[in-house]
């Protein structure tokens, strides 16, 4: 081959390579949207450019169409195609609305014929107003006075009349809190000529209060409604639940059983022989009844009150007292009951005391007893705990006594702990000083307190050396550590 022919052949190959490289270059598109109006506000009967889309196209093998979606004829485009090849095109979306309100539309860049993965769509909206008639808000009254007795409520209605409004009407309450003045809604329609604004006044304390409500809408001047509430009278005090703290020791019982199967559901507990006292505050013990597979009936105590903030809680305590029990003549001087806690929490302020009560000079004397290890942690919630107490081991027991269950705390939304008492028995078990579950197994070498609380896993000398002095039970027998 001659040099000339060789040069021609090389040029042909280079040309072919250039053609192949160009033919296989991947097309690309970058679209950058831009808003052209402030707050998307436009005037009716005027053409306004509202959005711009800058399209940078590379190596498009064919034209790509652009079209509007959404069906709102108010929108238009300055161009409906992205040309083939490499180019930068600005697509302007304009709008000429003929009616006030929100207009919505969309735009699609269609590259289906080139590469569907390049397709892109956008949605947009504008709010159209009449520049010759700006929005006006009118209230039938701008000052209202409501009067009600404490604990009761009264209502009034004011008319809202929007004119040439194109966006929702919002209502914001003033800074005053706890006034008992409430507005029916904080959002009203722009295109309803007359709307009712309902006002309610429900005072909790006597006196005069004032609240303001400011009505606003886009491009309209705010309108302020001032409501004065006048409350008369005193709020009726909450009725004190339960009984007077008066105990009758004239007919003590040598044996007694109470399974709480006759309690009323969610009402102050009232059982023959029992005294249910709201010592501080007005709350007493209630009856509790559930249904289903794990249903039970019990006495329930809680000082939870959703209407009182934790910081505003007041001191409260409730005391549930058994009938008079005969210690002197009882054959078996053993007390049994079951207890369960719910909604317990770490560091809770609520305390449940088991109390020994006797009559002194005709008046009840209450002594909280220690050693019961009452559940008071979250992971102790929901478990029934049996307690068996050999009362013969308590020094100086009175001939006649009562057992009390006292819950104390602040009454508030923070006092969630709830306690249940069930299966109360006196004089039926043998005196052993350990729980019912352990009484049947005298071979158990674990160590228990007199209240039936397990304090050690075995009775070895090493283990006993770590216990505090006192009276304990192991293997069904009592012993003293000194």
What does this structure look like?
The chain has 482 residues and is mainly beta. Helix content is 6%, strand content 46%. It contains 3 helices and 34 strands. The strands form 8 sheets. Strands 19, 21, 22, 25, 28 and 30 form a 6-stranded antiparallel sheet that branches. Strands 20, 23, 24, 26, 27 and 29 form a 6-stranded antiparallel sheet that branches. A hairpin with a 2-residue loop joins strand 26 and strand 27 (363-369). The longest helix has 21 residues, at 3-23. The chain is elongated and about 105 Å long. The chain starts with a helix and ends with a strand. Mean pLDDT is 87; it is low at 1-23 and 432-443.
**Overall pLDDT confidence:** 87
**Cα radius of gyration in angstroms:** 41 Å
Protein structure class: mainly beta
Overall body shape: elongated
Topology, please?
Blueprint: H1 3-23, E1 28-35, E2 41-43, E3 48-60, E4 64-69, E5 75-77, E6 81-82, E7 85-95, E8 101-109, E9 120-129, E10 136-139, E11 143-149, E12 154-163, E13 169-173, E14 181-183, E15 187-188, E16 195-201, E17 207-216, E18 223-232, E19 256-258, E20 275-280, E21 286-289, E22 297-302, E23 314-321, E24 325-326, E25 334-342, E26 351-360, E27 363-369, E28 385-390, E29 400-411, E30 418-426, H2 436-439, E31 447-448, E32 454-456, H3 461-464, E33 470-474, E34 477-481
Supply the key terms:
single chain, 482 residues, mainly beta, six-stranded antiparallel beta sheet, 3 helices, 34 strands, elongated
